[in-house]
Amino acid sequence: MLRPEEYFEPLDPAEKNEEYIAMESKSFARDTWERFCANKRAVAGLILLAVIAVIAFAGPLLSPYPYDGMDTSIANQGPSLAHWFGTDKMGRDEFTRVLYGARISLMIGFVATAANMVIGIIYGGIAGYVGGVADNIMVRVMDVVQSIPAMIYMILIMLMLGSNVYSVMIGICVNGWINMARIVRGEVRTLKEREFATAAFVLGASRKRILFKYLMVNAVGPIIVTATLMVPQAIFNEAFLSFIGIGISAPQASLGTLAQDAKMMISKYPMLMVYPVLVICLVIFALNFVGEGLEEALNPKGRD
Amino acid sequence: MKKKLLSVLLTLSMAAALPASALADEGAALPQGGEINIATVSCAGSLDPAGVAIDMWTEYAKLCTDGLLSYDSDGSVIYETAESYDVSDDGLVYTFHLREDAKWSDGSAVTADDFLNTIHRALDPENGGAIYANMLFGIDGAEAYHNGEGALEDVKAIAVDDHTLEFDLNAPCSYFLKMMTIPVFYPSKAGLATNEDEEWFKDPAKSLGNGAFCLESYTDGVGYTVVKNPYYYQADRVNLDKINVNFITDTTALLAGYQTGEMDVVTGLPDYVADDYTEEDGLFIWTMLTSKFILPNLEVEPLDNELVREAIALALNREEICAAIGNDYIPSLNYVAEYMLSPSSDQYFKDEQEPLFVEDQEKAKELLAEAGYPDGEGFPTLTYKYPNSEKDSLLAQGIQAQLKSVLNIDIELVGEEDGVWSTDREDGNYDLIRHSWTADFNDPINYLSLYVSGASSNYNHVADAAYDEAVANSNATTDQAERDKYLHEAQNILVSENFYVIPAVTQVYICLINPNLTNITTNDKGEPMYRFAALNA
User: Fold this and answer.
1) Looking at beta carbons, which residues of chain B come within 8 Å of A264?
2) What stretches of B465-523 show up as alpha helix (H) in DSSP?
3) A251–chain B Cβ distance below 8 A for any pair
4) CATH assignment of the domain containing B121
């Protein structure tokens, strides 16, 4: 028969404190970054995006060819050492055009997203925090704006302001901020009922301070994830507008206009279509991977 | 002046564009029967000659409607429903005698009332859709009635009897017979085609044909089918049984349709088709009567200076621009369409004169310097507006690149949606704008009347007494040779002396026609005509 003390063995001193699993104390940013880095796809996406961005912004400065001008003596050439992607109908270097196009597309994507983010955070934050009748009215306004398809706003704005980079950005912003505003509003409504918000209120913090110092900081995860996924949406919208012929004006070109230019000639020079479309795909893939990675990294439920 | 033909047998220079296999072949017996498919790229407009009678009507009329007169590719008259005509000595009264055997596809006779039906419907003040109503204003009383100021009874288009049609003009019009190819001079069956029923032309029971074919069915947005008209007075010359006309707006799909053999005739193809096909494979170049030019705003500095306008005109290398745009664009130094026939000789109008100007980059620089902008110094940035389309965008970019490299001046390109672009053009809201004009009928006056002082088409407000006088003189004379001289004088004032308009390019339509389809002719506008075509098995 086994005696009671035989049920147990003495603990090896080396294994002492094994149940103590407290994590190293890390800042929110550092924690997110490390968890992001653990996701290989996300890192690959970030690197790809960085490479495209650097080439797009620095490349045109290094390229010996302008994006405009005309020299029909070298028109419609295939890829060569001098012209990596060949030349288009006007004899312009396609590689340079694609770089410029990527630059304009990325610029539109990021600027439009930044604007949407600012508008969305302020509008959604106020609606969610103030609540009551004000919230009700603000939400109805969003419903009305959103009930009209985005493409109609964009086309109308292009008609009024002409075809240029700025009108494309404004067009994308008209209802692009609503998604962000809804998410921020939802977060703020939940967070403002939490104890720390009540504590801050009791201690006399101003509403503005509570909203931006206490609530918004806690909503930063969903905000960043939404913003990251808005960038490819903006790029895609711009490409679509350009593809249907009302995007930015010639001789400037975005990736969408390059694809549009190639459309007519697709059976003869299919590669002119492939280059810009490939770059659009890469950018959107990269941004989606980064977005997913951030979502996982920022989601407290994913913590192990 | 009795039965005077406008022009007699002319050279077949235009027929050079025809594929050998498609040339009219009257001698050999032609195969009978068969069905073909035609695809058109534009389905704009309707089938009503008194309505928006543009692209869709043009295609339909070639098959199903006979007018009074039409013209051959060399400009000679083809008598259709009219057997003959008389013109009064003062040139004010035109009388057409209609053939007695002209029949509608229901067997009823084509009468003068059917022609008046279209004219009256087009002039109806309530009918806002008649885009060619103003082409009837030469008829006494027509303008007043159309503007709601006169009565229908005072419109002096008169049915003397069933087979005699008379037009009393308010002024001699030496090109009146040329206007007979305008839709409003085509008949529509009185009693069946009415303005009250806006959809009459879609109903085969009402939409009768008096030509080689007649409507069998019509489907909105898809196309229509025509079958041989058994009552046609030349029915023995019609070989095909049935023609399906399909609306396919996508040019890639058009080409695919031809390649798979689904379509026998496709028009308006991408320009590179001309590289890949030869005449033996069915390539057909439709030399349209059209001209694309740049309109400078004469009220904007520095375009109010003739030297600047001339510098722009001379600086462009149109050959190079067209090379970038594609095979369907052809350089043009003329304002009047390149392929417009002369009213008095067997030549093209453009070939009767010295070139209006010669491209000369060096001289352009000198002119700009003389105007006070040596090497483009101090020259403001000008806008150039154009409708958003691939070709117009390439044209714009070519112009911009060349003006930059030759004159060192900056042009800001503004591509606009069609509606916005035409509003801007009408409102004078531009520095430079791309304009174009496609002839309504084959006579230079159709172009040269546009810039008369005060005309509604005079978008950049040209006000030149000498020009007005030359155009007025051309209208006043009945002698075609003298008229021709005045028309050239007017074009010289408009272009080479003042550059009120800056000629740029002309366009041809690239078509593919099944080589088995023979006996195709062309008309005076370069269009292929299939009414007597035959299909070899």
Assistant:
1) 251, 270, 390
2) 465-476, 480-492
3) yes
4) 3.40.190.10
Q: What is the DSSP annotation of B15-77? A: GGGS-GGGS---SSPPPP--EEEEEES---S-S-TTS--SHHHHHHHHHH---SEEEBTTS-E
Task: Lowest mean pLDDT of A33-37, A81-85, B29-33, B257-261, name the range.
Answer: A81-85
Cα–Cα separations (whole angstroms), residue B171 to B123, B175, B447: 19, 12, 19
Give the pLDDT confidence score for residue A143 in this predicted structure. Answer: 93
- Structural domain containing residue B69: 42-247
* pLDDT at B27 (0 to 100): 52
pLDDT score recorded for residue B6:
29
> Per the CB < 8 Å rule, is B401 touching A267?
no
Nearest chain B Cα to A156, which residue? B417
Question: Would you give the DSSP letter of residue B109?
Answer: B
- For residue A67, the SS3 value is coil
Q: Is A75's Cβ below 8 Å from some Cβ in B? A: yes
The residues of chain B scoring below 50 in pLDDT are: 1-25
Question: Are the beta carbons of A69 and B326 separated by less than 8 Å?
Answer: no
ipTM value > 0.90:
no
Nearest-angstrom CA–CA distance, A76 and A284: 28
B321: CB partners within 8 A, 6+ apart: A70, B329, B331, B394, B395, B398, B399, B402, B504, B505
- Domain, as residue range, for A252: 34-65+85-302
User: B326–A89: do the CB atoms touch at under 8 Å?
Assistant: yes
Number of domains in chain B: 2
User: Would residue B280 count as lying in a domain?
Assistant: no
Read off the pLDDT of residues A137-189 as tens digits, 9 standing for 90 and up: 999 999 999 898 888 888 888 878 877 788 888 888 888 899 999 999 999 99
Confirm whether A6 is domain-assigned. no
Dig out the tokens for B371 from the structure: 């105007």
